[in-house]
Amino acid sequence: MRIGGATLTTLKNEYGARLSTPSGLVVAVHPIGRGMTVPVSVRYIERSRSCGANSIRRPFAPAGQNSTRRGGAVKPPRAQVRAGDRHVPTPHVAGVATLPNGEYDAPERDLALRVALDALEAADCPAGALDGIYMPKPRPWTAQGLFSTLLTNLLGARPRRTVEVYTGGTSGGTAFRTAVADLRAGRAERALVLAVERTSTVETADYFGYVLSLFDREFAAPAGPSIPAVYAASARRYCHDRDVDRSTLAEVVVKNRANGAANPRGLFEESVTVEGVLDARPIAEPLGLYECPAPCDGAAALVLAADGDPPDGAVSVVGVGGRHAASHLLGPRDGPLYALPAVEGAVDAALTDAGIDAAADLDLLEPYAPFPHVEAALTEAVGLFDRGAGAAACARGATATDGAHPVSPSGGCLGRGHPAMVTPLLNYAAAVRQLRGTAPAPLQVPGARTALTTTEHGHVDGATAAVFRRGSA
Amino acid sequence: MTAGRDWRADPEAGQYTDPFWDALEADRFLLHRCRDCEETFFPPAPVCPRCGRTDVAWVEADGRGRLVSFTRQHVAPPGFEAPLALGVVELVEGPRLLAGLPGDAAPSLDATVELTAVEYDADYDRRDRSGRPFFAARIVE
Ligand SMILES: [Zn+2]
């Protein structure tokens, strides 16, 4: 997924990649060094749902749970504490904030504080009212450790729970699911989910050392693989077995780069052509530069609330799911290299949780698909298209913003840039903006009410899924 | 002999995978087989990934397999020379593994390959496997 600092530099050189902000200000990225700061005074506060202005937290009295202290004289009747009888609240998204993908000079702390404060402000939720803070553990090259504790102290929050989790690319999805589980269980009423990443600070050698450490260090890492290498292997096999041309797969890149170019929060201004994709510098054959996601810096935060009925028109989290296949970077034990059993399991669970019969009933998808064959195979795996027909469907416009099944209107990993720890939250934010009707104009899916998001890690070894819906559940 | 249970019973038994590297020194490639469900698997571990039982044993592989896919990396990790040819090999016994594809032979999908022990020359810290041979896949046809 990440191709290292050197490649990023080259990519920016070759592309003249630039950052644009919604204010219209465009800043060229310096090819070398870190001498550039995005004008972060441009902020992205999206106020929508209040989680209770000036509300005072009731200490340790989660909704629907008896607050009788253990060992107290009054024991609640058993029926009152059975989860099966308890009203399960539906969390809604009370606040969203994201920084545009790019390259930032500021430390991770500052990026995290910006999105956290913006999301809390949008939610009208003081940090002191948070019950939980959930985030991916920043990756090993991040200088600051014990990150959630630093943040909790700076925010003056006193949550019952902080979670810093690392499961590769699904980390943000795992943090999100944990927050949703706590909200549904009554363990929390207000949760801050956030993520921050700066890949601009890692040296190429350190990055590759990190990537090698993801592989089985005894039996696979000594061969010298990278993440694009294993995706290249599955792409080649997918094309062969499903009779798909690389040029058809390139249409997925073209679509996502066009979407990403229209997304002011994306990394790239330029779109690409099929020829440009096919002729790009090879990274891991058959994959070229534009078929690989571009690492970058980013940050995002969501405030989830489950403190009573969601306001009218709120975007709720109505389904979550996850699955890990018996696999570790070399495809599932019981299927071809390009099979996606983790995604199938996660999406199936999330749709069932949401009471939605089929992915085809959704208004849009914002999947975590870092390589074009993954997006094509994913649209097949969830049942939008026949096996092997995903790329052709994209080529004829079926997954375009105005197509029958819009996929990655934000640009996704390939079109938007890919700060891996943040990408899951960028997908959530993109879904929420779509359902609120506040997506960038050319990318808005008219009247969208339901959206599916996914995350994955490794070589799609593990996956999570979440379904969002506008209006009360 | 039940490899999994014997190893668990003896805290002085060393790393579970030691026999693999000892055999590779002698140009033999060892896999694992479950005596309950007959699943053959790799990497070796004291439990069957198919049925979960622990009656597992070392077995010698035929050494041949099929090239399920391959790539040439143009950006290689430090300590490795780019371009770097890598293959995903499915052994005739079933397990899938990653292996370098040394030599000039142009790979093709489903080509027959043979695993060979090779002297390890990349500058990658294999910790306590340092100095041991590694394995690579040679294209046979
Ligand atoms: Zn078994």
Descriptive overview:
The complex is a heterodimer of chains A (473) and B (141). Chain A has 473 residues and is an alpha+beta fold. Helix content of chain A is 33%, strand content 16%. In chain A, a hairpin with a 4-residue loop joins strand 13 (450-457) and strand 14. Chain A is globular and about 55 Å long. In chain A, 59% of the residues are buried. Residues 1-82 of chain A have low confidence and may be disordered. With 141 residues, chain B is mainly β. Chain B is globular. At the A-B interface, helix 1, helix 6, helix 7 and strand 8 of A face strand 4, strand 5 and strand 6 of B. The complex binds zinc ion (ZN). Zinc ion (ZN) binds next to loops of chain B.
Characteristics of this structure?
heterodimer; A: alpha+beta; Peroxisomal Thiolase, Chain A, domain 1; 2 domains; four-stranded mixed β-sheet; B: 141 residues; mainly beta; five-stranded antiparallel β-sheet; three-stranded antiparallel β-sheet; 2 helices; 34% strand; binds zinc ion
